[in-house]
Amino acid sequence: MEKEAKTNFSFASIALSFFILIVLPLTITGVIISKGVIKVGEEATQANLRILDDNQKQSIAGRAQNVADAVAQFLADREKDIRIASILPRDEQTFTTFLKSNTRGVVQSSNVGIVKIPLPVYREIAFLDKSGMEALKVTVDGVVAKGQLRDMSNPANGEFGEEDYFIKAKQLTPGEFYMGPVVGNHVSRQEFDAGKDFSGIVRMAAPVFDSNGFAGVVALALDYRHLMEFTGHIVPTEPGMVFARVNPDDMNFTFMVGRDGSMLAHPAQYLIGGLGPDRKPVPVMDDKNYEVLSKSGEGAMNVLNMGFMDENLPKIHALAASGKSGFFTYTVDNKRIFIAYAHIPYYGSVYSKPEGYGWIGMMVDIDKYHKLSEDKVKDIQQKVERWQKSSIVVVFVSLILLFIIALILARGLYRSIQKRDGSVPRLGDDED
């Protein structure tokens, strides 16, 4: 009886030891993992359940001003380029080198994902003689044949409709230059939805003088994608840059408005003006044609014409045109809208004070932002619940398996000890 009790006690001790060494740590680990999943879920929930408070509004306004200042600096740097171009030797090699030496990185899609690649700042450089005829023209594709050169003394010969940059530059004095508006072919909504982007240019021109006086005009075609790059990857409520198309339907985007109220950059690029298929400027939306043009996506937007939808847009433009920056929160059509606006302090060429080049806008539909935030939180909570259930099942199954393994190991070890104790001679026998 005493021997049996001793045997049972020994087996229980071994089994308990294996339980403590194997099963108990896993149990503790499972509890820690489960609590960790819950804690991570709570932190993720708090991080995504955001409210557009005063601090964040101030931050967005500051960010808008930073973008506006960056645009102004970019344009100021272009002044240096046109002045350099006006004193360059007028030959093919020099013009080609000039184009290749001026590049900036832009975000593009590729077969390896989203990457930032170098893109020439200018699409072309040309020298026009004193009569307005292009004498030499080099593009990013190479030297333009003489038969394709244009006589720009007639603005109607412009690549994008009426272009009078030669006439404007011809009237300037040494050191002055002309920077024109954005010109390009309009991208309809159907084309944009199919993946086509707006591809415009800004003409820059400066007079060239030699010992005999006025010798002609040098002209650059600034690739407007570099200006759109400043706003195209910014979501006001998100830090950093996004490397994909910003969805305008989320009403959480950044845009650029010109000094005349025209839309210069917008995630819905079909709102940017340009030439239509008939080679004439597409109509600008107003209260009379808005329904038709907004559906077809074949009209341009000017904020000065949008007062019938949002009376605050013309007011904001007036403030920005006076050189001011700030932000507004207001309600329109039962929607709470936040807009930060920042004056672009560039005053070169025709862009005089106080209007400057225009302004940067950052718009957030507050209610939609909160709704998207709540939807994201619900999705996180559902994932946390699934992770928690999965971890509990895994730990529970592992406990059962390890418990069985612990019993098997304990029994095996116990039998091994019994067998060893029975085979070893006791002290005091003759064999000792």
What does this structure look like?
Mean pLDDT is 85; it is low at 1-9, 45-49 and 423-432. The protein is built from 9 helices and 13 strands. It has a 6-stranded antiparallel sheet. It has 432 residues and is α+β, with helices and mostly antiparallel strands. The protein has helices spanning 2-48, 54-85, 92-101, 165-170, 189-193, 225-228, 290-296, 312-321, 366-423, and strands at 103-110, 113-120, 122-129, 134-139, 142-143, 178-185, 199-210, 213-223, 252-258, 263-265, 326-332, 335-344, 358-365. The protein has 2 domains: 13-47; 54-369, 2-Layer Sandwich (Beta-Lactamase), CATH 3.30.450.20.
Ordered list of secondary-structure elements with their pairings:
Blueprint: H1 2-48, H2 54-85, H3 92-101, E1 103-110, E2 113-120, E3 122-129, E4 134-139, E5 142-143, H4 165-170, E6 178-185, H5 189-193, E7 199-210, E8 213-223, H6 225-228, E9 252-258, E10 263-265, H7 290-296, H8 312-321, E11 326-332, E12 335-344, E13 358-365, H9 366-423
Antiparallel strand pairs: 1-2, 3-4, 3-8, 4-5, 6-7, 7-8, 9-10, 9-13, 11-12, 12-13
Helix pairs in contact: 1-9
